Input
Amino acid sequence: MKDLFLKKPYVAIRKSSRHLLVLVCVLMLSVPALSGCTSQSAARPSDKIKVGVTIYDQYDTFLSQYMECFTKELEADEDVDVVVYNASQSQQTQNSQVKKMIEDGCDVICVNLVDRTDPSTVIDAAKKADVPIIFFNRELVEGDIGRWNRLFYVGADAAQSGILEGELAASTCLSDKSIDRNGDGKIQYIVLEGEAGHQDAIVRTEYSVDTLIKKGVEVDKLGYAIANWNRAQAQTKVTSFIENYGDGIELIMSNNDDMALGAIDAYEAAGILKSDWPAIFGIDGTSVGLEAVRDDKMTGTVYNDKEGQAQAMYRLAVTIARGGSIEELSDEFEITDGKYIRLSYEKITATNINKYLSR
Ligand code: BGC
Ligand code: CA
Output
């Protein structure tokens, strides 16, 4: 999958011959003049559509699995070519990629913004060339999406994920008295937060803690740490929490699975017995996250429906690229304000894990 995300030149994916084609493109990177990918898409028949994608960081676990789902959607469709770029966490790089995709004749471009507060260059370029944009996963503000009627967003409702995580944590704390290890009637907790400024980080933190309290759990906040969605950063932060609080941490709520896994890594590296770990919750249900729930290391997670979001993005991309409207999808997806498609989150615990493991 990694090979799909290249800064330049791009990679074209074509259904049945996808793997072969990707391999060919990768091998041709050092001789771009010979690249079969570029010339092939330029010569495409007029009814064939070309979809461009740029993601903020190819190493993000959730997004790389999302892109796998997206490319699977394409396997069934012979009439679509796709190019995928990795923006490597640079908005400037992403701006250039969008311009290049416009020049290369993309009919629609899917943008996972690096900086969700800075979509102006992307919007201006797309508007000028009349190429519609589907933003996904990293939500731009309403004022920006309202700047043109061919801007859309595919994602999920961040508040819902926080509420579901808070409900999972509350029901564990209320039903299992051993979580309150020091027996003081309060749950000592920490929160692991994603990127500062990301809608999912801000909103998940707020709603998960509020929900826990509303459900009647008495809490005592030990601290929070920003770990940028990242497993290794979370491990470092949790290692220092363990140094400060020892077994005094009773609950860890993480904004995503990768950081929850970093917390698990920290407990394992410290040699602490599983029976002495806090309850740990994540959000995403990535394959590694699901395995941690199955293995009883993570108490629960919240499913961020990558299959549903990838399918919605694919359906919307091909519909608008062929001149259709988002409303044509109203039987398949819930559409808000003629611009947004949001998929629902779901709670995952040991009791329903098998359903997700087999997806
Ligand atoms: C996911 C995170 C991911 C982030 C990237 C969030 O919705 O839960 O795992 O790192 O999106 O934007
Ligand atoms: Ca306690």
Observations:
- Residues 60, 62-63, 137-138, 200, 229, 256, 258, 283-284, 304 surround beta-D-glucopyranose (ligand 1) (CB under 6 Å).
- Residues 1-12, 14-43 have pLDDT under 50 and may be disordered.
- Residues 5-149+306-343 form a domain with the Rossmann fold fold (CATH 3.40.50.2300).
- The longest strand covers residues 219-226.
